[in-house]
Amino acid sequence: MNADTARAPVEAVVVGASAGGVHALQRITAALPARFAPALLVVLHLPPDRPSGLAALLAAQCALPVAEAVDKMPVQPGSVTLAPPDYHLLVEPDFTLALSLDAPVLHSRPAIDPLFESAAAAWGERLLGVLLTGGSADGSAGLAEIRRRGGQAWVQDPATAATGTMPASALEHAGADAVLSLEEICARLAGLTHR
Question: Stretch 11-18: mean pLDDT, rounded?
Answer without folding.
Answer: 98
